[in-house]
Write a structure and sequence with these properties.
The chain is of the alpha+beta class. It has three domains: 4-136 and 317-332, Nucleotidyltransferase, domain 5 (2-Layer Sandwich); 148-179 and 258-314, Nucleotidyltransferase, domain 5; 181-252, Actin, Chain A, domain 4, CATH 3.90.640.10. The protein is 38% helix and 28% strand. The protein is built from ten helices and 18 strands. It is flat, with a radius of gyration of 21 Å.
């Protein structure tokens, strides 16, 4: 007989990892970053502590993000990171190995899917199954996906955007795009370098996105319109502060935002007519941290003519969805 602590759901995100424990809810929400000492290959820090080291480490320490664009880029580091998070979630002294449900982007290959399963079992899981992120996101957002009605979910994470139409408990059509919060940040870094001749880090770019980022040409309403960020002047090599407006942030990210909108339109074009009618009535549901970009819901609504809603707890939807998957697999004894 397995206790509550032995069923885990893991949202294996490019930027953040969330761990759900059956019976306890989400117990971990930490950046997917690992700091390693190159001299002896020893892990110095994981999660929030390691994220604080990005761009600040001495020569012998390297801070790594082992997941890129939603898939494993560094297998060994991912395995060690998962082992750390599993141990942190269920404690060092477990009687049974935990059973794990892991979420992956809908566009991964069989090889990438197998790598995720293998990493989870090597990290200490008794068994692992993978579910596609938009499916878990729909469950976590509280949508009824078991009936014949159509649901369109747009899940924007750190590394990928997944758009899917779900009906009768399965994905009818989908599109996975390797564009997400990280690509928004990279676009801001390039824009500041080009327009202001100042080099900023990814964390500063993320702060710009959060504070003045916008998906609409007019930017945010006045009053929230400028954010100061510090970086290195490329001409003098000295530290410099620049003010970034909301309209500049829009200009920086517009290409990536347009790619997300394009993916939504592409899935709508693939959708069977009967399900299109359902989506017209129910609208589009957005999940994931990237869906919180100011004005993105309005932009998608303007370009598709459909109502768009951001899920109540958008960041946690996928992890909450794994909890519902765990309940289902326990009933059907799939794990």
């Amino acid at each position: 007989m397995f206790g509550y602590g032995n069923d885990l759901g893991i949202d294996l995100g490019t930027a953040t990892i969330l761990v759900y424990v059956r019976g306890r809810g989400i117990v971990l929400n930490e950046p997917s970053v690992v700091a390693i000492d190159k001299n002896d290959d020893k892990i110095i820090a994981v999660g929030e502590e390691a994220r604080a080291m990005l761009g600040r480490t001495p020569g012998n320490i390297v801070a790594i993000r082992p997941l890129r664009d939603g898939v494993i880029a560094d297998y060994n580091t991912t395995e060690r990171m998962l082992s750390y998070f599993i141990e942190k979630a269920v404690g060092k002294r477990w009687f049974f190995k935990p059973r794990v449900v892991v979420c992956i982007p809908s566009g991964v290959t069989e090889v990438e899917e197998r790598a995720v399963k293998q990493a989870a079992t090597q990290a200490g899981a008794k068994s692992a199954i993978v579910v596609e992120e938009p499916y878990a996101a729909a469950l976590g957002a509280g949508l009824d996906i078991t009936g014949p009605g159509g649901n369109l979910v747009v899940d924007i994470g750190g590394g990928t955007t997944d758009v899917a139409v779900i009906s009768l408990g399965g994905i009818v059509c989908k599109k996975s795009l390797r564009v997400g919060g990280d690509k928004f940040d990279e676009a801001i870094v390039r824009f500041i370098r080009k327009e202001h001749s100042v080099m900023i880090g990814d964390r500063s770019a993320e702060q710009i996105k959060i504070n003045v980022g916008a998906a609409l040409p007019q930017g945010r309403p006045s009053g929230e319109d400028k954010f100061e960020v510090r970086g290195r002047d490329l001409l003098t090599g000295l530290p410099k502060t620049v003010g970034v407006t909301s309209r500049e942030a829009y200009a920086a990210m517009d290409e990536q935002v347009e790619a997300v909108v394009g993916a939504v339109k592409e899935v709508l074009e693939m959708t069977p007519p009967e399900l299109s009618a359902d989506i017209l009535n129910q609208g589009i549901v957005m999940t994931g941290g990237g869906s919180l970009l100011w004005g993105l819901d309005i932009r998608i609504s303007q370009e598709t003519g459909l109502p768009v809603y951001v899920a109540e707890d958008a960041v946690s939807c996928v992890a909450l969805g794994t909890g519902k998957v765990l309940q289902g697999v326990k009933r059907r004894r799939l794990l």
